Amino acid sequence: MLAPVNLLLITALAAFIALCVLGSLARSGIAGIRAALWSNVLTIVALVAFTGQTRQDGWWLSIMVANLLMSGGICLFYAGFRQFLGLAVPWRRLGLGLALLMGTLFFFTYVHWNLAARIVAASGLHLVILASLGYQIWSLERKRGWRYSEVFTLALMVTAVIGHAVRMVVYGADLEQSVVMMSPTFWNVLFLSLGVLVMPSLTLGFILMIHDRMLAEREREANIDFLTGVLSRKAWWGEVQRLGAHSRRGRASVAVLVLDIDNFKRINDSCGHAGGDAVLRHFATLAATALRASDVLGRLGGEEFVVAMPGTSLQDARLAAERLLAAVAAVPCRHGEHVVSYTFSAGIARWDDEQSLADVIERADRALYAAKQGGRNRVVMDTSVPV
Protein backbone atom coordinates (compact mmCIF):
# COMPACT_ATOMS: atom_id res chain seq x y z
CA MET A 1 0.00 0.00 0.00
CA LEU A 2 1.31 3.45 -0.92
CA ALA A 3 2.45 5.33 2.19
CA PRO A 4 0.32 8.41 2.98
CA VAL A 5 3.37 10.71 2.97
CA ASN A 6 4.35 9.57 -0.52
CA LEU A 7 0.77 10.04 -1.69
CA LEU A 8 0.77 13.62 -0.41
CA LEU A 9 4.02 14.45 -2.19
CA ILE A 10 2.87 12.87 -5.47
CA THR A 11 -0.38 14.84 -5.29
CA ALA A 12 1.55 18.03 -4.56
CA LEU A 13 3.50 17.42 -7.78
CA ALA A 14 0.24 16.86 -9.70
CA ALA A 15 -1.16 20.07 -8.24
CA PHE A 16 1.99 21.92 -9.30
CA ILE A 17 1.61 20.67 -12.87
CA ALA A 18 -2.06 21.74 -12.87
CA LEU A 19 -0.96 25.12 -11.50
CA CYS A 20 1.49 25.58 -14.39
CA VAL A 21 -1.17 24.75 -16.98
CA LEU A 22 -3.68 27.06 -15.32
CA GLY A 23 -1.07 29.81 -15.15
CA SER A 24 -0.63 29.66 -18.92
CA LEU A 25 -4.29 30.70 -19.26
CA ALA A 26 -4.04 33.70 -16.92
CA ARG A 27 -3.49 36.22 -19.72
CA SER A 28 -6.83 35.26 -21.28
CA GLY A 29 -8.47 37.67 -18.84
CA ILE A 30 -11.22 35.19 -17.96
CA ALA A 31 -12.68 35.85 -14.53
CA GLY A 32 -11.79 33.46 -11.72
CA ILE A 33 -8.38 32.29 -12.94
CA ARG A 34 -6.38 34.39 -10.47
CA ALA A 35 -8.33 33.03 -7.48
CA ALA A 36 -7.93 29.47 -8.78
CA LEU A 37 -4.18 30.00 -9.15
CA TRP A 38 -3.81 31.09 -5.53
CA SER A 39 -6.05 28.20 -4.52
CA ASN A 40 -3.57 25.75 -6.01
CA VAL A 41 -0.60 27.52 -4.44
CA LEU A 42 -2.19 27.14 -1.00
CA THR A 43 -3.05 23.52 -1.74
CA ILE A 44 0.53 22.63 -2.69
CA VAL A 45 1.95 24.18 0.48
CA ALA A 46 -0.77 22.47 2.55
CA LEU A 47 0.02 19.05 1.08
CA VAL A 48 3.68 19.40 2.01
CA ALA A 49 2.75 20.64 5.50
CA PHE A 50 0.44 17.66 6.06
CA THR A 51 3.43 15.31 5.89
CA GLY A 52 4.54 16.63 9.30
CA GLN A 53 1.72 14.83 11.11
CA THR A 54 4.08 11.97 11.80
CA ARG A 55 5.73 14.20 14.44
CA GLN A 56 3.81 15.34 17.51
CA ASP A 57 5.93 18.50 17.92
CA GLY A 58 4.85 19.62 14.45
CA TRP A 59 1.09 19.65 15.05
CA TRP A 60 0.80 23.43 14.83
CA LEU A 61 2.16 23.23 11.27
CA SER A 62 0.82 19.90 10.09
CA ILE A 63 -2.66 20.31 11.59
CA MET A 64 -3.47 23.98 12.13
CA VAL A 65 -1.49 25.63 9.32
CA ALA A 66 -1.97 22.77 6.85
CA ASN A 67 -5.75 22.69 7.35
CA LEU A 68 -5.93 26.47 7.17
CA LEU A 69 -4.10 26.42 3.84
CA MET A 70 -6.07 23.47 2.43
CA SER A 71 -9.45 24.86 3.48
CA GLY A 72 -8.43 28.35 2.40
CA GLY A 73 -7.50 26.87 -0.96
CA ILE A 74 -10.91 25.24 -1.39
CA CYS A 75 -12.57 28.53 -0.42
CA LEU A 76 -10.50 30.41 -3.01
CA PHE A 77 -11.37 27.80 -5.62
CA TYR A 78 -15.04 28.31 -4.75
CA ALA A 79 -14.58 32.06 -5.16
CA GLY A 80 -12.81 31.65 -8.50
CA PHE A 81 -15.50 29.32 -9.81
CA ARG A 82 -18.26 31.72 -8.87
CA GLN A 83 -16.38 34.55 -10.58
CA PHE A 84 -16.03 32.36 -13.67
CA LEU A 85 -19.79 31.72 -13.63
CA GLY A 86 -20.49 35.45 -13.25
CA LEU A 87 -21.77 35.15 -9.68
CA ALA A 88 -20.97 37.26 -6.62
CA VAL A 89 -18.57 35.78 -4.07
CA PRO A 90 -19.88 35.52 -0.46
CA TRP A 91 -16.53 36.42 1.09
CA ARG A 92 -18.01 37.02 4.55
CA ARG A 93 -19.64 33.59 4.71
CA LEU A 94 -16.47 31.92 3.46
CA GLY A 95 -14.43 33.71 6.10
CA LEU A 96 -16.90 32.76 8.82
CA GLY A 97 -16.88 29.11 7.78
CA LEU A 98 -13.08 29.06 7.72
CA ALA A 99 -12.89 30.71 11.17
CA LEU A 100 -15.34 28.19 12.65
CA LEU A 101 -13.34 25.32 11.22
CA MET A 102 -10.06 26.62 12.64
CA GLY A 103 -11.65 27.11 16.06
CA THR A 104 -12.93 23.54 15.98
CA LEU A 105 -9.54 22.19 14.92
CA PHE A 106 -7.79 24.14 17.68
CA PHE A 107 -10.16 22.75 20.32
CA PHE A 108 -9.81 19.13 19.19
CA THR A 109 -6.03 19.44 18.90
CA TYR A 110 -4.92 21.38 21.97
CA VAL A 111 -7.89 21.21 24.38
CA HIS A 112 -9.41 17.80 23.75
CA TRP A 113 -7.50 15.63 21.27
CA ASN A 114 -9.87 14.00 18.78
CA LEU A 115 -8.72 13.13 15.29
CA ALA A 116 -12.17 11.95 14.18
CA ALA A 117 -13.79 15.25 15.18
CA ARG A 118 -11.18 17.22 13.23
CA ILE A 119 -11.72 15.10 10.14
CA VAL A 120 -15.51 15.43 10.38
CA ALA A 121 -15.23 19.22 10.73
CA ALA A 122 -12.82 19.64 7.80
CA SER A 123 -14.80 17.27 5.56
CA GLY A 124 -18.01 19.08 6.48
CA LEU A 125 -16.70 22.42 5.23
CA HIS A 126 -15.35 20.89 2.03
CA LEU A 127 -18.61 19.00 1.45
CA VAL A 128 -20.73 22.15 1.76
CA ILE A 129 -18.49 24.14 -0.59
CA LEU A 130 -18.29 21.43 -3.25
CA ALA A 131 -22.02 20.68 -3.06
CA SER A 132 -22.76 24.38 -3.50
CA LEU A 133 -20.46 24.59 -6.52
CA GLY A 134 -21.98 21.48 -8.06
CA TYR A 135 -25.48 22.87 -7.65
CA GLN A 136 -24.49 26.17 -9.27
CA ILE A 137 -22.98 24.41 -12.28
CA TRP A 138 -26.03 22.17 -12.63
CA SER A 139 -28.55 25.00 -12.31
CA LEU A 140 -26.76 27.22 -14.83
CA GLU A 141 -25.69 24.71 -17.44
CA ARG A 142 -28.95 22.74 -17.67
CA LYS A 143 -30.57 25.91 -19.02
CA ARG A 144 -28.10 26.36 -21.88
CA GLY A 145 -27.05 22.81 -22.67
CA TRP A 146 -24.34 20.59 -21.28
CA ARG A 147 -20.80 20.28 -22.58
CA TYR A 148 -18.18 17.69 -21.76
CA SER A 149 -16.21 20.00 -19.48
CA GLU A 150 -19.26 20.76 -17.30
CA VAL A 151 -20.25 17.09 -17.07
CA PHE A 152 -16.69 16.11 -16.18
CA THR A 153 -16.34 18.79 -13.49
CA LEU A 154 -19.76 18.13 -12.01
CA ALA A 155 -19.03 14.39 -11.86
CA LEU A 156 -15.82 15.14 -9.95
CA MET A 157 -17.72 17.34 -7.50
CA VAL A 158 -20.43 14.74 -6.95
CA THR A 159 -17.77 12.08 -6.34
CA ALA A 160 -15.96 14.33 -3.88
CA VAL A 161 -19.18 15.19 -2.03
CA ILE A 162 -20.09 11.51 -1.68
CA GLY A 163 -16.55 10.72 -0.54
CA HIS A 164 -16.56 13.44 2.11
CA ALA A 165 -20.00 12.30 3.32
CA VAL A 166 -18.80 8.70 3.70
CA ARG A 167 -15.61 9.94 5.38
CA MET A 168 -17.66 11.88 7.93
CA VAL A 169 -19.76 8.78 8.67
CA VAL A 170 -16.74 6.47 9.01
CA TYR A 171 -14.80 8.74 11.35
CA GLY A 172 -17.88 10.12 13.10
CA ALA A 173 -19.09 6.61 13.92
CA ASP A 174 -15.60 5.80 15.27
CA LEU A 175 -15.07 3.05 12.70
CA GLU A 176 -11.47 4.20 12.25
CA GLN A 177 -9.36 4.25 15.42
CA SER A 178 -6.11 5.77 14.10
CA VAL A 179 -4.39 8.23 16.43
CA VAL A 180 -2.41 9.82 13.59
CA MET A 181 -3.83 10.54 10.16
CA MET A 182 -0.61 9.36 8.51
CA SER A 183 -1.08 5.79 9.78
CA PRO A 184 -1.13 3.52 6.69
CA THR A 185 -4.55 2.00 7.44
CA PHE A 186 -7.13 1.22 4.78
CA TRP A 187 -9.51 4.06 5.67
CA ASN A 188 -6.75 6.61 6.12
CA VAL A 189 -5.19 5.90 2.74
CA LEU A 190 -8.58 5.69 0.98
CA PHE A 191 -9.93 8.98 2.28
CA LEU A 192 -6.60 10.74 2.14
CA SER A 193 -6.40 9.80 -1.54
CA LEU A 194 -9.86 11.23 -2.12
CA GLY A 195 -9.22 14.39 -0.15
CA VAL A 196 -5.88 15.37 -1.62
CA LEU A 197 -6.81 14.51 -5.22
CA VAL A 198 -9.86 16.79 -5.17
CA MET A 199 -8.06 20.05 -5.92
CA PRO A 200 -5.84 18.84 -8.81
CA SER A 201 -8.84 17.08 -10.36
CA LEU A 202 -11.15 20.08 -9.99
CA THR A 203 -8.43 22.31 -11.41
CA LEU A 204 -8.33 20.06 -14.46
CA GLY A 205 -12.10 20.41 -14.81
CA PHE A 206 -11.80 24.17 -14.43
CA ILE A 207 -9.13 24.26 -17.15
CA LEU A 208 -11.45 22.33 -19.48
CA MET A 209 -14.26 24.82 -18.82
CA ILE A 210 -11.89 27.75 -19.45
CA HIS A 211 -10.81 26.09 -22.70
CA ASP A 212 -14.44 25.73 -23.80
CA ARG A 213 -15.13 29.38 -23.03
CA MET A 214 -12.05 30.51 -24.96
CA LEU A 215 -13.17 28.44 -27.95
CA ALA A 216 -16.66 29.93 -27.73
CA GLU A 217 -15.21 33.45 -27.61
CA ARG A 218 -12.99 32.77 -30.64
CA GLU A 219 -15.97 31.35 -32.51
CA ARG A 220 -18.02 34.40 -31.60
CA GLU A 221 -15.25 36.71 -32.80
CA ALA A 222 -15.16 34.82 -36.09
CA ASN A 223 -18.94 34.73 -36.52
CA ILE A 224 -20.05 38.12 -35.18
CA ASP A 225 -19.39 41.45 -36.85
CA PHE A 226 -17.40 43.33 -34.21
CA LEU A 227 -18.96 46.73 -34.98
CA THR A 228 -22.67 45.94 -35.16
CA GLY A 229 -22.97 42.69 -33.19
CA VAL A 230 -24.86 40.89 -35.98
CA LEU A 231 -23.62 37.85 -37.92
CA SER A 232 -20.64 38.33 -40.19
CA ARG A 233 -21.06 37.64 -43.90
CA LYS A 234 -19.46 34.18 -43.67
CA ALA A 235 -21.43 33.16 -40.57
CA TRP A 236 -24.70 34.44 -42.05
CA TRP A 237 -24.08 32.53 -45.27
CA GLY A 238 -23.46 29.26 -43.44
CA GLU A 239 -26.46 29.72 -41.15
CA VAL A 240 -28.82 30.53 -44.02
CA GLN A 241 -27.58 27.61 -46.12
CA ARG A 242 -28.62 25.30 -43.27
CA LEU A 243 -31.87 27.22 -42.83
CA GLY A 244 -32.64 26.97 -46.53
CA ALA A 245 -32.06 23.22 -46.63
CA HIS A 246 -34.41 22.74 -43.68
CA SER A 247 -37.06 25.05 -45.12
CA ARG A 248 -36.99 23.42 -48.53
CA ARG A 249 -37.52 19.99 -46.98
CA GLY A 250 -40.65 21.38 -45.36
CA ARG A 251 -41.55 23.31 -48.53
CA ALA A 252 -41.56 26.56 -46.55
CA SER A 253 -40.94 29.87 -48.26
CA VAL A 254 -37.79 31.85 -47.42
CA ALA A 255 -37.61 35.57 -48.15
CA VAL A 256 -34.22 37.27 -48.45
CA LEU A 257 -33.87 41.02 -47.92
CA VAL A 258 -30.82 43.10 -48.81
CA LEU A 259 -30.83 46.42 -46.92
CA ASP A 260 -28.56 49.35 -47.71
CA ILE A 261 -28.30 52.64 -45.78
CA ASP A 262 -28.91 55.54 -48.14
CA ASN A 263 -26.21 58.15 -48.79
CA PHE A 264 -23.88 56.58 -46.27
CA LYS A 265 -20.81 58.31 -47.71
CA ARG A 266 -22.49 61.65 -47.04
CA ILE A 267 -23.04 60.59 -43.41
CA ASN A 268 -19.36 59.70 -43.08
CA ASP A 269 -18.31 62.99 -44.66
CA SER A 270 -20.54 65.11 -42.42
CA CYS A 271 -20.29 63.17 -39.13
CA GLY A 272 -16.95 61.44 -39.49
CA HIS A 273 -16.31 57.72 -39.39
CA ALA A 274 -17.33 57.59 -35.72
CA GLY A 275 -20.72 58.98 -36.71
CA GLY A 276 -21.00 56.47 -39.53
CA ASP A 277 -20.17 53.65 -37.13
CA ALA A 278 -22.85 54.93 -34.75
CA VAL A 279 -25.41 54.83 -37.57
CA LEU A 280 -24.44 51.25 -38.45
CA ARG A 281 -24.81 50.15 -34.82
CA HIS A 282 -28.11 52.03 -34.51
CA PHE A 283 -29.52 50.41 -37.63
CA ALA A 284 -28.39 46.93 -36.58
CA THR A 285 -30.02 47.38 -33.17
CA LEU A 286 -33.32 48.55 -34.66
CA ALA A 287 -33.30 45.74 -37.22
CA ALA A 288 -32.58 43.07 -34.60
CA THR A 289 -35.40 44.45 -32.45
CA ALA A 290 -37.91 44.62 -35.29
CA LEU A 291 -37.23 41.14 -36.66
CA ARG A 292 -38.47 37.81 -35.34
CA ALA A 293 -36.28 35.43 -33.37
CA SER A 294 -36.33 33.02 -36.32
CA ASP A 295 -35.07 35.65 -38.79
CA VAL A 296 -31.34 35.69 -39.54
CA LEU A 297 -29.68 39.11 -39.71
CA GLY A 298 -26.15 39.66 -41.00
CA ARG A 299 -23.86 42.34 -42.35
CA LEU A 300 -22.66 41.82 -45.90
CA GLY A 301 -20.12 44.61 -45.64
CA GLY A 302 -19.95 48.39 -45.49
CA GLU A 303 -23.44 49.80 -45.02
CA GLU A 304 -25.17 46.73 -46.49
CA PHE A 305 -27.12 44.23 -44.37
CA VAL A 306 -29.03 41.08 -45.26
CA VAL A 307 -31.92 39.19 -43.65
CA ALA A 308 -33.31 35.70 -44.25
CA MET A 309 -36.92 35.27 -43.13
CA PRO A 310 -38.07 31.61 -43.08
CA GLY A 311 -41.72 30.82 -43.63
CA THR A 312 -42.35 34.31 -45.02
CA SER A 313 -43.95 35.41 -48.28
CA LEU A 314 -42.68 38.38 -50.26
CA GLN A 315 -45.65 40.48 -49.13
CA ASP A 316 -45.02 39.71 -45.45
CA ALA A 317 -41.32 40.41 -45.86
CA ARG A 318 -42.19 43.74 -47.46
CA LEU A 319 -44.43 44.63 -44.51
CA ALA A 320 -41.58 43.78 -42.11
CA ALA A 321 -39.16 45.98 -44.07
CA GLU A 322 -41.65 48.85 -44.13
CA ARG A 323 -42.07 48.56 -40.35
CA LEU A 324 -38.31 48.88 -40.06
CA LEU A 325 -38.42 51.94 -42.34
CA ALA A 326 -40.93 53.50 -39.97
CA ALA A 327 -38.80 52.62 -36.93
CA VAL A 328 -35.70 54.23 -38.45
CA ALA A 329 -37.70 57.38 -39.20
CA ALA A 330 -39.20 57.48 -35.71
CA VAL A 331 -36.00 56.79 -33.76
CA PRO A 332 -33.07 58.78 -35.19
CA CYS A 333 -29.51 57.94 -34.29
CA ARG A 334 -27.85 59.95 -31.53
CA HIS A 335 -24.10 60.48 -31.77
CA GLY A 336 -22.74 62.58 -28.96
CA GLU A 337 -24.66 65.83 -29.01
CA HIS A 338 -25.80 65.30 -32.59
CA VAL A 339 -28.92 63.64 -33.97
CA VAL A 340 -28.29 61.83 -37.25
CA SER A 341 -31.35 61.11 -39.39
CA TYR A 342 -30.97 58.58 -42.16
CA THR A 343 -32.97 56.23 -44.38
CA PHE A 344 -32.39 52.90 -46.06
CA SER A 345 -33.53 51.03 -49.13
CA ALA A 346 -34.35 47.34 -49.41
CA GLY A 347 -34.65 44.70 -52.09
CA ILE A 348 -36.53 41.45 -51.49
CA ALA A 349 -36.36 38.12 -53.32
CA ARG A 350 -37.78 34.67 -52.68
CA TRP A 351 -35.54 31.63 -52.39
CA ASP A 352 -36.80 28.91 -54.72
CA ASP A 353 -35.83 25.24 -54.65
CA GLU A 354 -33.96 25.41 -57.92
CA GLN A 355 -31.82 28.45 -57.12
CA SER A 356 -28.68 28.89 -55.09
CA LEU A 357 -28.36 31.41 -52.29
CA ALA A 358 -25.99 33.44 -54.45
CA ASP A 359 -28.70 33.70 -57.13
CA VAL A 360 -31.22 34.89 -54.54
CA ILE A 361 -28.82 37.55 -53.26
CA GLU A 362 -28.25 38.72 -56.82
CA ARG A 363 -31.99 39.08 -57.44
CA ALA A 364 -32.47 40.92 -54.14
CA ASP A 365 -29.58 43.20 -55.15
CA ARG A 366 -31.32 44.02 -58.40
CA ALA A 367 -34.48 44.89 -56.48
CA LEU A 368 -32.36 47.05 -54.14
CA TYR A 369 -30.90 48.87 -57.14
CA ALA A 370 -34.43 49.54 -58.36
CA ALA A 371 -35.28 50.99 -54.93
CA LYS A 372 -32.27 53.28 -55.13
CA GLN A 373 -33.20 54.36 -58.65
CA GLY A 374 -36.77 54.97 -57.52
CA GLY A 375 -35.73 57.60 -55.00
CA ARG A 376 -34.38 55.61 -52.01
CA ASN A 377 -36.11 55.14 -48.63
CA ARG A 378 -38.31 52.40 -50.03
CA VAL A 379 -38.76 48.65 -50.45
CA VAL A 380 -38.88 46.88 -53.83
CA MET A 381 -39.77 43.23 -54.39
CA ASP A 382 -38.12 41.10 -57.05
CA THR A 383 -40.71 40.09 -59.65
CA SER A 384 -38.62 37.73 -61.75
CA VAL A 385 -40.38 34.74 -60.13
CA PRO A 386 -44.08 34.28 -59.30
CA VAL A 387 -45.12 35.71 -55.94
UniProtKB/TrEMBL annotation:
> Which CDD domains does the protein's record reference?
GGDEF
Keyword field: Membrane, Transmembrane, Transmembrane helix
- EC number, UniProt record: 2.7.7.65
Does the keyword section mention Cytoplasm?
A: no
One Pfam family name is GGDEF
Q: Which domain of life is it from?
A: Bacteria
Q: Does the keyword Transmembrane apply?
A: yes
According to the entry, every stretch annotated as the GGDEF domain falls at 252-384
Q: Please give the catalytic activity noted in the UniProt record.
A: 2 GTP = 3',3'-c-di-GMP + 2 diphosphate
Q: Which GO terms describe its molecular function?
A: diguanylate cyclase activity
| Sequence intervals crossing the membrane | 6-26, 35-53, 59-81, 93-113, 119-139, 151-173, 185-210
PANTHER family in UniProt:
DIGUANYLATE CYCLASE DGCM-RELATED, REGULATORY COMPONENTS OF SENSORY TRANSDUCTION SYSTEM
The protein, known as: diguanylate cyclase
